[in-house]
Write a structure and sequence with these properties.
30% of the residues lie in helices and 44% in strands. It contains four helices and 15 strands. The chain has helices spanning 2-28, 33-44, 48-82, 273-290; strands spanning 98-104, 107-117, 120-137, 140-160, 163-173, 176-183, 188-191, 194-198, 204-211, 216-223, 234-244, 249-255, 257-259, 268-269, 295-306. Strands 1-2-3-4-5-10-11-15 form an eight-stranded antiparallel beta barrel.
């Protein structure tokens, strides 16, 4: 009996001891240490859904930004390629070549211009004209042909609007007067103030020519532009000025005989030195008559087109 009672007391004491120890361990935190570490690891390590939510979102943002940049660049490029470049305010001279036709004291002409600077054109042209006329001077009958053939180049400067100042050069001056001369037999005529009679047996005949040096400086003033700054494709042109062609060159060549006008006798050849001296004087007289045209006046009116 005492033994059974001792065993029961020992068992109860052991149970109380073990139970009390567990409570003590739990209170001290030793038993919950594993649970705390697991919770800390779980908190420090992001879950798979969280990681998947962050990483794809970041990559998507990069792709969107790259697509946006490429779209902008491509859109701009497509816009520039699709839409023609428009003129900026004040932009002009879209044309590159201007062509004009005109009528002037140099004849009928055609010309072309190229833009060099903002207010400067380089212009060149050709002129042509022909006129036949019969006239008599100092008793000598002339059948004349007036030939106008010229080529010109100008440096057109536009200080304001369509007004221009144009120094230049007539690089080819083919303007000339040629004539066939004749004096019917028995008719009087004059060479440099000396009167002769054309020999009825060998009447006086010959040729004459008047021309100028081939290259002449020019200066022109006018309004109108073959390449308008407004961008129009047509223009009206007016110019006034002249070409300095110097003194005329005159040549007279006679054949036949001349006689004393009072008697009709004592006929001599026109090649006689005394007659030739009068021929030279007659040439100088004609040269003096033409002298005012050393500066040949030019007035021009025309229309231009450009493209």
């Amino acid at each position: 009996m005492r033994i059974n009672t001792a065993r029961w007391v020992a068992t109860a004491a052991l149970f109380l001891t073990v139970g009390w120890s567990g409570k003590c361990f739990a209170g001290s935190g030793v038993v919950g240490e594993t649970k705390d570490e697991s919770t800390a690891v779980t908190s420090a390590t992001p879950s798979a859904p969280a990681v998947a939510g962050i990483v794809p979102r970041s990559m998507e943002q990069v792709d969107v930004q790259m697509d946006t940049a490429e779209g902008d660049a491509g859109g701009n490029a497509r816009s520039e390629a699709a839409e023609p470049t428009s003129k900026r305010p004040g932009q002009h001279r879209s044309s590159k070549v201007g062509i004009g036709v005109k009528v002037s004291t140099l004849g009928a002409g055609i010309e072309a211009a190229l833009p060099v600077f903002a207010k400067v054109n380089l212009r060149g042209g050709l002129n042509i004209f022909q006129y036949d006329r019969t006239f008599t001077q100092d008793g000598i009958h002339y059948t004349g042909q007036l030939h106008f053939r010229s080529g010109e180049a100008h440096f057109d400067w536009y200080p304001f609007g369509g007004f221009h100042v144009s120094p230049g050069v007539m690089f080819y001056n083919g303007n000339q007067l040629t004539a066939n001369a004749s004096v019917p037999g028995g008719q009087n005529f004059t060479l440099s103030g000396t009167t002769y009679k054309s020999d009825p047996a060998m009447p006086v005949g010959g040729t004459g020519k008047l021309d100028f040096v081939k290259v002449s400086p020019t200066i022109m003033l006018g309004v109108g532009n073959l390449i308008p700054q407004s961008g129009r494709h047509y223009s009206f042109l007016f110019e006034v000025g002249g070409a300095y062609q110097g003194s005329a060159r005159v040549g007279l060549n006679f054949t036949g005989n001349v006689c004393d006008p009072t008697t009709g006798l004592a006929c001599i050849s026109v090649n006689d030195p005394t007659v030739q001296a009068n021929v030279q004087a007659q040439q100088q007289k004609i040269r003096n008559d033409i002298n005012p045209y050393r500066f040949f006046p030019v007035v021009s009116l025309g229309v231009g087109f450009n493209f």
